[in-house]
Amino acid sequence: MRKGIILFLILSFLLLLFTPISAQKKFRIGIVYDVGGRGDKSFNDAAYAGLQKAIKLLKVEGKDMEPGPGGANREELLRTLAEQNYDLVVGVGFLFTDAIIKVAKEFPKVKFAIVDGYVEGVPNVSSLLFNEHEGSFLVGAIAGLMTKTNILGFVGGMDIPLIHKFEVGYKAGAMYVNPKVKVLINYIGVTGEAFKDPVKGKELALAQYKQGADIVYHASGASGEGVFEAAKETGKYAIGVDSPQAWIAPGRIITSMLKRVDEAIYLTIKDVVEGKFKGGPRYFGLVNGGVDYEYSEYTKNLIPLKVKNHVDVLKKKIINGEIVVPFDNKTFEEFKAKYLKK
What we know:
With 342 residues, the protein is of the alpha/beta class. The protein has helices at residues 2-18, 21-24, 43-57, 74-83, 97-106, 132-146, 161-177, 198-210, 224-234, 261-273, 305-319, 329-339; strands at residues 28-32, 61-65, 88-92, 111-115, 125-130, 151-158, 182-189, 215-219, 237-242, 253-259, 280-284, 291-293. It has 2 domains: 24-130 and 262-288, Rossmann fold; 132-258 and 304-339, 3-Layer(aba) Sandwich (Rossmann fold), CATH 3.40.50. It is built from 12 helices and 12 strands. The model has no long low-confidence stretch (mean pLDDT 92).
């Protein structure tokens, strides 16, 4: 009898030992979106795609939520998920920074992640950060090589350092391949609402096209829909951001700067499931596939092969350190002095 009990315990232990973690526990993942919410065909939709991939491949449970007008209830939504003991709570966007720090400290046993927000000193928070300037350099190079007028446009969402990285990288890439190019710069606003104002996005893009720009790059979330409308109305071109966006206006969007928020979120969920989650910053750039440019069925007939080949060479040079892409005004001036000598 005693031997039977011991044998049963051994077999039970071995079964537990070799049973996959995912089969032992159903992990629950909660995501709270940024301004614009799901359906923006850009930043938030990329986050949603990462969650869906995890649901499919890792068999986790997922719940996604959207903040109310102005995002006033971000903290409340994060706290709701934490109180329900979700295994990972994700805030999509830097606007969650203060709220996620506060809630994470209140719930030290719950794991948190924030996209684009830098959090340090809170061990249960992982910051998912991107080298947006590197991807923007590549689409800037495409624009610089393809422009007929030598005038390009950039429409940013919120006028903040994060979006300046897109602008500066874009200018650097365009000027690196085409010293004659001029880049027109406009921002939609100074609050988070700038990421969901397609009317203003269209207005600014139309103004840039009127000034001679033939390609406009947007980094403005859902406001980019307006930029695409302007491109269609004028017969000019646009560049998308975050997700592959060329399908939205076939023939008018030559490429998109891919910011792999989907992959960053999926990998973070995977780490949680596998017991490998770590707090602190985690960077995604060209070197690890965190950013790139869109070359798809919608863009391959728009981008000449010689342009693609040129840009792929630049991509390799950035990865191996031959080209250091600027990310703010100071590094842009250093970039010009080093690479754009007259």
